[in-house]
Specification:
Blueprint lengths: L46 H12 L32 H13 L3 E4 L3 E6 L10 H6 L2 E7 L8 H8 L4 E7 L12 H4 L6 E6 L3 H12 L13 H8 L1
Parallel strand pairs: 1-3, 3-4, 4-5
Antiparallel strand pairs: 1-2
Helix pairs in contact: 1-2
Length: 236
């Protein structure tokens, strides 16, 4: 009498319970490829929209916070809410964002060394990269009228000619102390798209100096445009 045939082990069902993915069958999927959400690709946006997004992340619109023009201490640092991590997204994003980060923010020039020591928040943390320095076109500089300068007129022209923005904050230790010798180099700067001069000098002189820096002529300017206003300014 022959032995009975061994009973076959039942095969597991290939049907998965609802919500369960059986990894033994890789073609099985809850969502088909057509229903998967399409990833958002930043670089597929038009360039104008990408630039608007990068400006929101990388530019600082609030004016630089400085102390009163008559106080001699260094300006208080301006807190900036920026998101520079976007530069790490890709090489293309890095190239586009770097131009906006350094080209569209206002950087403070060193009061003695001008654009050779630019900084945004802390004078001890200067911009050292030659690539980044070449992109910076917006400057803020503090000029003290009652002290000798460490730079020449040629240094000032070489640093600021053709800048996009140049903001000159003028101050002195006491009212009526010091002349305009420290500003002579700025009087010969040309081609600035937007110049702003403010602080310890008459309004008319400030507007005249702004017009000089925004001009394109190569002729040297004499005087300060409105010396007749100077005595009345200090007599008020």
């Amino acid at each position: 009498m022959s032995d009975p045939a061994p009973s076959e082990t039942p095969k597991p069902s290939i049907q998965s319970s609802p919500g369960h993915l059986d990894h033994r069958y890789p073609t099985q999927s809850i969502l088909s490829a057509s229903t998967l959400p399409k990833p958002f690709l930043f670089l597929e946006l038009p360039g104008e929209i990408r630039n608007q997004i990068l400006r929101l992340l990388l530019t600082h619109k609030t004016p630089i916070v400085t102390r009163n023009a008559q106080q001699l201490g260094p300006p208080k640092p301006t807190l900036m809410s920026l998101s520079p991590n976007i530069l790490l997204a890709s090489k293309r994003t890095y190239a586009e964002a770097l131009t906006i980060l350094y080209g569209e923010n206002l950087f403070q020039a060193h009061p003695s060394y001008l654009t050779s020591m630019l900084f945004a928040l802390d004078p001890a943390r200067t911009v050292n990269s030659s690539v980044c320095l070449a992109l910076i076109r917006r400057f803020h500089v503090r000029v003290r009228l009652d002290c000798d300068t460490f730079y020449t007129k040629e240094d000032v022209r070489r640093a600021f000619d053709g800048a996009d923005v140049l903001e000159v904050e003028v101050f002195r230790s006491s009212w009526g102390i010091g002349g305009y010798e420290a500003l002579e180099g700025y009087r010969d700067v040309r081609g600035v798209r937007k110049a702003r001069v403010h602080g310890s000098l008459p309004i008319l002189t400030a507007r005249w100096l702004e017009a000089c820096m925004e001009g394109v002529g190569e002729e040297a300017m004499e005087g300060w445009g409105c010396e007749e206003d100077e005595q009345g300014y200090w007599d008020r």
